[in-house]
Amino acid sequence: MVHTKCRDKFYHHRTDDGSFGQVARFPVPDEQVPWSVSLPSYKPTEFTAPFVLKAVWADPELGVDGFNPVWNSLDGKVNRVSHDGEYLVDSSNRPVNKMGRTGLAGRGV
User: Fold this and answer.
1) Which phi-psi region, left, alpha or beta, contains residue 45 (left: φ > 0; alpha: ψ -120 to 50)?
2) Would you say 108 and 48 are in contact if contact means Cβ atoms under 8 Å apart?
3) Which of 40, 60, 76, 103 could in theory staple to 64 by disulfide, Cβ–Cβ 3.0 to 4.6 A?
4) What tens digit of pLDDT does each residue of 52-95 get?
């Protein structure tokens, strides 16, 4: 099953000033959405809304000294378990979308 909701050409989001923005996704053909299919050329567009980086409720960026999240578990007071089951992490220790490639990386909004 191919996840379609997160496969539009653009990722639409609200900006800090309340207007709407869009970010172009890296194109991923339907047959290459699953992580089980090799796609060496995959270079997803990186996007994290600026307000996320300043939000008190948000984790720090990966790589910040002292921040070493433990995925797929209760990590201190933060439940990092997905309701969809265990998820994979990439070589940078970032969780990947269980439904497959979306053409975006980062935290979005």
Assistant:
1) beta
2) yes
3) 60
4) 888 999 999 888 888 999 999 999 999 999 988 898 998 888 99
Q: How far is CA 77 from CA 50, 70, 74, 89, in A?
A: 25, 11, 7, 20
List % helix, strand, coil for the chain (3-state, nearest 5).
Answer: 5, 25, 70
Residue from 2, 15, 22, 20 nearest 102 by CA: 2
Q: Beta strand pairing status for 104-108 and 45-48?
A: parallel
Q: Which of 36, 25, 8, 5 is nearest to 105 (CA)?
A: 25
The C-alpha atoms of residue 6 and residue 4 are separated, in whole angstroms, by 5
pTM over 0.70: yes
pLDDT at 1: 62
| Token representation of residue 79 | 């439940």
